[in-house]
Task: structure prediction
Amino acid sequence: MSNNNNTPSTWTNLSWTVKLAMSVISWGIKLSRRSDGSVNRRLMSFFDFKSPPSSINGVKTSDIIVDTSRNLWFRLYVPITTTTTPATNNVRTCQLPVIVHFHGGGFACICADSVGSDNLCRRLAKELNAVIVSVNYRNSPEHKYPSQVEDGFDVLQYIELNPNFEGFPTDADLKNCFVSGDSAGGNLAHHVALKGSNYGFRNLRIIGVIALQPFFGGEERTESEIKLAGAPFITVKGTDWLWQAFLPEGADRDHPAANVFGPKSEDISGLNFPATIVIVGGYDPLLDWQKRYYEGLKKAGKEVYLIEYPNVFHSFYGVPDVPESALCINEVKKFMQKVVG
Result:
């Protein structure tokens, strides 16, 4: 442990190059936030490095346009490494689950082609042996809630109605579809799955939610928010700004988009909400809200699993140098196998 009680050894033990890269992104996001609630997009572009579509490290990627009027598109990740035998002639012998993923960035920053998001999704596709659909949803504050949820749901409808779009593998199994998200994307994954539980999909079935340190909140200041105010990569002051930018005008942090099991939320016990895995970290200021999410799903009678890594910071899952990152992906893999059956 470092001298700072809010800084875990998983952070202090990182190489200086990794810490510098993560700090640059964090600084860029912070500097781009204006006091009037807007984002300096030009400034943010200097810190938000992009990754073009490619075919490397066993995964092929391509960008698919859904709606040009709102710049709605997604990046498709297809694993190209296969387990083969001479008899199969290099053809996969099992169907691939589909994961519709929502990137983090506090709803306001980062895109589906940002380097960090691209690296994570490429890794998920390869290690989970799954097709990843990474949604490039509209950012706040220019587009407030529920714009991001609408974008995500429209992508689900697109792949259900157009399963033969270019690049989508014929062995992708839409009946074994997951929605996933990291940080703010974990919040969106919940809301998209919630919307989907009321919708009659014909060719697609959402069977699981993968929430990697999801971004939830409320008006109350929790113990983890107070205790971990100086933790790496995320601050309570920053999350307050992000909620104000994301939530509808006049809404407070107890709005159901933020506080999903709070005083203004609706009962979901009667809905067919899918099985969920919630990944949390001991040095994440959002920890208590994430645990309340787990408890809320459990109380509503839903199948839910909580995986906690006591010595990790917010966004650890995207840092391969952190040992718990590989453990996290392995837990997700076991969850998927359990749900697929």
